[in-house]
Structures are given as C-alpha cells and as structure tokens.
User: What shape does this take?
Amino acid sequence: MKKFLIIFFLNLMTIGSIHATNSSQMKFQQENMCNTKAITLLNKSKKARQDTVSVLKEFPFFPGDFNEFIFSNFHYPPSLQENCIQGRVVVKFCINPKGKCDHFSIVRSVDPLIDKEVLRVLKLMPRWKWRDSSKKCLWMVKAVEFQLR
Assistant: This one.
C-alpha cells in the first residue's frame, strides 16, 4: 500500500510540473507572438500532413514540399497582420485519378480572408502523382497553421 501511495504521489507531482511548464511557455508565446511581422507556416507533426478520410493502399504524393509551396505562394492580408489574426485552417479537397485537386472546402476556419487566400493558393497546386493508376478519387484533409512572429 505504501508503494502504491508513493508511486501515485510521484506521478501526481510529475504531471503537475509538466502542466506548469507548458502553461508558462504558452503564456510567454502569447505575449511575444504579435511583436514581429514575419509569417511562418507550422505543421506540428507528420500526422497533420497525412490526415485523410479515405483509406487506400497507395496514396498520391505532392511533387515537392507541400508546406514550402503554400508558404511561397501565400500572401498574408495586411489587415489581418495588423490585428495579429492567426491560427489553423483545415481544408478538405479531392484528388482525382489524374492527380488534379478540386472540390475544395474549409473544414475549420480562422478568418474569411485567410480562408479565401488558402483556397486561392491550393487551386494553384500542381497535379499530385500517384504511384499506381487509381480509379478512385481520394479525399484529403490538410491542416495549415499560420503564426505571426
């Protein structure tokens, strides 16, 4: 019983210290986030880049770096930059068997101006490449995060 109580309190203290560290880092980020004007695109994990709502054996792939393409073609609206509007836009689109993307829709919105710009950039995408000749459309969900630094 003593071992159980000791392990329980050690776990409780560890979780408390991790929570305190994370909340202080988030507060520091929020205070300093709007001080600079450069724009960065963040993708927290590979999972965010590979979110899909359909399962196939072979997935199409973007020719090049998807995030670099978005970053190089995206023009942040000046009014949103002044108001420090940022966040994650989640977009759903279909990749047809020829690799062309269409049927774009915003799943999670930050601001209508950012949504409009994200859709404009995604419509400029080159054709995706399939490893095999698929006869089906694949629905993809991509999360693009915009953060002012």
